[in-house]
């Protein structure tokens, strides 16, 4: 199917004379792209389209149910579903605060690592360690840190708090884990950006009598801007779609206080078996992410000009 | 050019076919090859896993033609796992689960109705009250049996003997348990010198409170005209209120335990931070294994209200609808769950066997480790009403768990909790009754 769609009927008439050259090139291009394209189509685009299709049906994960097309019923139900909105709100708080705090912390760390300190090589390596851990392992590790009786945190503070089961503390507690888990890649990208800032700019700034703060504000930040835009957008998408970490830490509890949208969709699909509704949830989240991201990137681009 | 695109299309088609066809092949077996059965077991306590594996080995040696493969699962995610496996057609033949989960899978058509397959001996060894926990609507107007119940859990009170004796209260027996008033009074007496009378571990409060609510006839659900709704009347409120009173009025319950899972308060229990821990019978195993030397403890029967009834759920073995060897699977189940073997399994899991033969086993009635009290409590078990409610799982996790957690944390009043349970609850249940 793909091959026929992607190759339009050869143009007729006067352009025919140039055809062999172009077509040979296109042909080679497609042949070369094919190995990469097939898995993408089969395993990404296919399921995506299938999921979008499911969103407009009342599909359920059962053996006896006759799936029917229901149009926008799932969508209207989503709009009036208080559970969804509270989960969406939690997701927004989580994604924005993790992304922003992660960025600030990573920027600080990157600036520090960019200085000529002793052991900076070792420090750089150490700062990437969390990156090497799968989210599930990170979750298990922090679960031990937060453990009410044997946890390191309670030992350290001399308190007796069940961090992950407390209604008001659970969300902040997992946000801290989110920041910790995502910092390395942000730091590394920012560090790479920092090392690309031309030294001459700083020298010129120093000549003009600019202080450290002034140099950071007027040279470092503007120079880093494209890197910052790229990494914060990626972090935002990554965070709002976070699943494994929170699933291990709290499974969405206590009382749904940490039920991120993706956990909500997972529960709908695999616990309550409402596959159609869960697909609509996924679709809605994809649209929201695209919209937020589009707006953000568009504004950044415009300001950059 | 035509040829290349045709080739490309053919390549994609082959790939797609290869991927799509992967799951279907290789299942048919030659006539004299042994039949292979997968058995998903959720046993997790060490003794219990050992007992399970030993029984499987025993079976495999005796039945070279029906070979059973032991597959380890986990209670934490078994239902998520089964939903995906059922949908993908890769579910195990024999499935270990518990009765609350069966009603959903049964009405979705994933489980085999065992009504006509059960051997008479197995059927008569297990009392009707246990069979009731696995009997559900078959979606076609009739009733089907969707599993074989084998282990049941009842609630008991595990108590620190020293603190209990020091309080000089009447020691309850299986024939004459405490009333809830006596229980609260005893808890008050034991609250002194920095230790509490009781600890309620209410991280997962729903099943525990719903099962105990039957003490006062609280069923939480009512069905009329084929429509099930939630009800929280005076009967349902009794146990809720009494536990809440212990926490906030009598201050005889340890507030630290509230957010913990059932086994989490044990270290504090050994230290004497509180005297009594209401828990399922299986928790005795951890006390036996972990308690420091010289720690004396006893098992007390659960308190009674207007009756001593408790809601029962059972652990079950079911057969997948799409299993290719249902008859062989049934043979394996009836071996696995015969009286002798059930006694072994019950001992391994520290739960109560459904088999009457197994319950008469001397190991089940010894005074040691409170087996006598535990086994005696089996007579109070009745089918938990919520077992038959379609959508109970969603009600539990979306509505009841947060509402009860907030109520026990004293963040909302009992009226607010009741309103949530009923109003939000009915909305959830509606989805399942269309």
Automatic annotation (TrEMBL), chain A:
Membrane-spanning ranges: 29-52, 92-113, 125-142, 162-181, 224-250, 270-298
Alphabetized UniProt keyword annotations: Cell membrane, Membrane, Transmembrane, Transmembrane helix, Transport
GO CC, any one term: plasma membrane
Chief place of localization: membrane
Region (Disordered): 1-20
GO biological process: transmembrane transport
Organism: [Actinomadura] parvosata subsp. kistnae
Protein name: Transporter
Membrane topology: Multi-pass membrane protein
Compartments it resides in: Cell membrane
Family: Belongs to the binding-protein-dependent transport system permease family.
UniProtKB/TrEMBL annotation, chain B:
Entry keyword annotation includes Oxidoreductase: no
UniProtKB keywords: Signal
Record Pfam families: SBP_bac_1 (PF01547)
Stretch forming the signal peptide: 1-20
Alphabetized Gene3D superfamilies for the sequence: Periplasmic binding protein-like II
InterPro entries in UniProt: Bact_solute-bd_prot1 (IPR050490), SBP (IPR006059)
PANTHER family: ABC TRANSPORTER SUBSTRATE-BINDING PROTEIN, ARABINOSE-BINDING PROTEIN-RELATED
Protein name: Sugar ABC transporter substrate-binding protein
The organism of origin for this protein: [Actinomadura] parvosata subsp. kistnae
